[in-house]
Design brief:
The protein is mainly beta. It has a single domain, classed as Beta Barrel (Porin). The chain is 6% helix and 51% strand. The chain contains two helices and 19 strands. A 16-stranded antiparallel β-barrel has the order 1-3-4-5-6-7-8-11-12-13-14-15-16-17-18-19. The longest helix is centred in the N-terminal third of the chain and has 19 residues. The two termini are 33 Å apart. InterPro entries: Gram-neg_bact_OMP (IPR050298), Gram_neg_porin_domain (IPR033900), Porin_dom_sf (IPR023614). Keywords: Cell outer membrane, Ion transport, Membrane, Porin, Signal, Transmembrane, Transmembrane beta strand, Transport. It is a multi-pass membrane protein.
């Protein structure tokens, strides 16, 4: 028993010893859960129902836990790493296609010159979008209009990011950008968090991803832009986005924001061209324009209200008008620095041939009938550690 106690004591004291030697490891995370009401859910036979349930993909914020660490190697060089696991707080199951560390799993080197990292990481579309996306990974955020936005990650990747006097530059490349299948659909690729597009040893151009970003950010304003490409594999049925060998799904993003004391206003534009339009939806155009105007205002130190007006237009559509308006409002009340409660509401105004769901934080199954609008409301609790 004494030997066991000594072993446990040494293990517990190791982080403190390591910290004294220039190494630190931090445990962090977030738990956010919400009850949601959604109307006009298609029953598959032309009718519709309403539902009260827990969100299962994300709520006002995603739920995760992680470890991040650094070791100082010299005056201008440190080793860094990040392991981050997403989970569903309602069931305790892993997100991101069932991965243990599906949000991030990388190691790298960092200095005044920037950071070079290897592993599963966010791409440059994420880093360019983070400054101008008012609602972030909210269930009623941009992910309801483009599921790729909250899943902008790459397996088997190398990335570089550097910041110099307000200017930020970045580049990313991956070979075998998504090694996990989503579990449903052809090829087991049913969700954007698991697209069954891993390393193809017979085709160097298959399942590749690359992206670039540049931005300038200050305390009062900023502008950012990104160019992002993901490529498909063969057969195309094994890829959620409908991309065959040689097909590309390309996005160009630009945003700008300004801050006035407690008020922040941001405008985002995203242009998309998908060679495999079956990944967007039958009859929808292979090109689309997404506009988002968002604002956030701190009413008091404890109360924040924010929201967005979003417009999505599919071009070259073959099934009627493809214009969607999406309206979101949210209010948050901070009980402490780490705990808050909130309420959100969203309204998806679908056009003639679209059926996007207002409930972006709930797994597929809440979509309305074609051309039908939908309302979603949720209330929840968030705690960070």
């Amino acid at each position: 028993m004494k030997l066991k106690a000594l072993t446990v004591g040494l293990a517990l004291s190791f982080p403190m010893l390591a910290s004294a030697q220039g190494t630190s490891v931090t445990l962090y995370g977030n738990i956010d859960t919400a009850i949601e009401y959604v109307n006009n859910i298609s029953d598959g036979a032309g009718g519709s129902n309403s539902s009260v349930h827990f969100t299962n993909l994300t709520s006002s914020w995603t739920s995760y836990w992680g470890l991040r660490g650094t070791e100082k190697l010299s005056d201008n060089l440190s080793a860094v790493f990040n392991l981050e696991s997403g989970f569903n707080p309602g069931t305790g199951t892993s997100q991101q296609g069932g991965r243990l560390f599906g949000r991030q799993a990388w190691v790298g080197l960092k200095g005044d010159w920037g950071q070079l990292a290897f592993g599963r990481q966010y791409n440059m579309l994420f880093w360019a979008n983070i400054h101008g996306d008012i609602l972030g990974p909210n269930a009623y955020g941009l992910g309801a209009l483009d599921a790729y936005i909250p899943n902008a990650r790459m397996d088997n990747s190398v990335t570089y990011r550097g910041s110099f006097d307000g200017f930020t530059f970045g580049a990313a490349w991956a070979r075998g950008r998504d090694n996990v299948g989503g579990g449903t659909g052809a090829g087991g690729a049913g969700t954007p968090s698991g697209t069954n597009c891993g390393v193809d040893y017979d085709n160097n151009g298959a399942c590749v991803a690359y992206s670039f970003m540049a931005g300038y950010n200050t305390a009062g304003w900023g502008v950012n832009a990104a160019y992002d490409v993901i490529k498909g594999n063969d057969p195309a049925a094994g890829n959620f986005y409908g991309l065959g060998a040689g097909d590309k799904d390309r996005r160009v993003l630009a945003n700008a924001y300004v801050k006035f004391d407690a008020l922040k206003v941001a405008l985002t534009y995203l242009n998309r061209k998908n060679d495999g339009i079956n990944g967007i939806g039958a009859g929808l155009g292979e090109r689309s324009d997404l506009w988002s105007l968002g604002a956030s205002y701190g009413v008091t130190p404890a109360v924040t209200v924010d929201g967005s007006v979003n417009y999505l237009n599919y071009k070259d559509a073959t099934a009627g008008s493809q214009k969607v308006w999406y309206y979101v409002a949210r209010v948050k009340y901070a009980l402490s620095k780490r705990t808050s409660v909130y309420a959100s509401a969203a309204y998806m105004d679908n056009d003639d041939a679209t059926r996007l769901s207002a409930a972006g934080g709930t797994a597929p199954g809440t979509n309305p009938n074609v051309g039908q609008s939908q309302t979603a409301v949720m209330a929840g609790l968030r705690h960070s550690f």
